[in-house]
Give the backbone structure.
Amino acid sequence: MRPESMKIFDDLRGQNMVVLENAKQSGRKVVGMYCAYCPQELVLAAGAIPVSLCGTRDEPIADAEKVLPRNLCPLIKSSFGFAITGKCPYFYFSDFIVGETTCDGKKKMFELLKQYKPTHIMHLPQGADRPGALSWWKEELSLLKERLEEELGVTISDDNLREAVKLANSEQRAVKELHELNKLDPAPLSGLDLLTATFMKGFNVNKFEGIALVNRLIDEVKEVIERGGSPFRAGTPRILLTGCPVGIGSEKVIRLLEEGGGSVVCFESCSGYKILAMLTDEDERRDPLEAIAERSLKIPCSCMTPNEGRLGLLGRMIREYRVDGVVDLTWQACHTYNIEAELVRGYVRDNFDIPCLHLETDYSNSDLQQLKTRVTAFIELLDKRWT
Amino acid sequence: MGIDVGSITSKAVLLNGSAWQSVLRPTGYSPRQAGREVFDELLDKAGLARADIGYIIATGYGRTTLDFADKAMTEITCHAKGAHHLVPGADMVIDIGGQDSKVIFTDRQGNVADFSMNDKCAAGTGRFLQVMAAAMGADVSELAELARGEEPVQISNMCTVFAESEVISLLAEGVGRGRIIAGIHRSVAKRVTAMAERIGKGELIAFTGGVSKNEGVREYLARELGREIVVAPESQLAGALGAALLAREKLLNAKVLHEKK
């Protein structure tokens, strides 16, 4: 049975729009972010509202292609399309945009975005393993801090930062706990519901309310577990989804996997567990900016080289969630994840002897039938129950 | 019984002990109707009624349109099973059908271990060959004969639309039809080889699907892969045969379960 509070999550994006508009009218500032590397702690410490602008829908892509090349990943095109068409109220309400130099497509897209909103681009190191990487990244955080102070007309103190770290950590703990409920077999939450609940954290105007809602869902799911409930029958193949981030609007692969008879139990991507497995150090004696920099630099994204952290995380999740198969999703023209798919495939094969399916697609429905054949064949290969 | 409704041809296979019967006909525009027709035709041929058939599995791109089937399964699972029956012990199956090409690795028992498929594009498929044949005023069934012994010309484009333009330019330059067709065969083989080698190297390779009937593609595929490939005479029926074999497994397991009770 589907938890009751999922209905609230379903409507959250629309409801939060009204809340956001009211907050704007009462003078609150809004900062738009695109990526997990953007430290939301700084935005919270500035008293502003952080919102996620990462495009997950197909609609604005045609408009984006009037400016951007077609053979670019749908995530970048969708993000840009929403920005230039005014179709995304969250972009519309944003006073300031933070981008970062992750992949080439994104960093150049942010240059174009500057024509539409005041934008600051953070410079990431190319990898986390060089001696100067952390100090470089910390310096980038203090540049962002200065820019936020200037743009929003505020001063950000160390105490503001420490408080923000605690708030962001408690959000992370709650969402992580929710995700981990799916370690149970059969999983109490469908992949689609887990995605919906996780995705909505990017649209919370009031963090405390958002966390309370996640906790309410956790309590409800625990009750479902006690009654022995699950949307899945025993023996349903358990699938880990890795690769490019997925959101509401770009969930077609998850939908196909679950309609085809699988259970997507966890997401390794940055829209899922990747950024939940690491808290910021709350030690009061430390420089909070350094603690924030340290945490975000550990995010194992394919834009980094090397990116061994991703394989380590995958291995841990395969074991802890006891998955039967791995699906690695690449958005078309995402070179970094597409190439890394080869490493993922080898790692999964050599260490776990479970099947791995690599899919390359975009946000449109044009390849739904072809995708369905691959996905269903993968489930048939995992599911030995049918005869 | 197994019914494979492909994009170009529909096939049906009926198993009766170790013997089997089959029919095949063009799919045309309606997969539902084509599936129905091969089903009726095969019943007729065998002198049986629907009630005499224990279990029906539908496969191929039209698999979900057949409401009289008991179950739909993907062509990947069915081809692995069918190829195993036709070429016992094959660990790699290359299937090139009308609208897709796939490489399947099996556990040598007919079960899928890994697979790879072409993207949403006709490159390296039966449709690609059909379009090229049409551009040269030939029928797809004549291609192998026309290219026999010819030195292949380089075809650079993988995209069906661009490759067609390339073929037309080559014809305009006065390059012989046979050499162009040989080049097309080689380009299909190269494309499928690249897809196969991304997932591994097989030892015993079975080649199935409609394109396996083309001797030219077969030769270049063996050359590109550096290994012998086996094409059974009934290779076009591998999907329908696999579906029929899976249907039989389902019946046998149900019987075992029933007897246990």
Notes: The two ends of chain A are 27 Å apart (CA to CA).
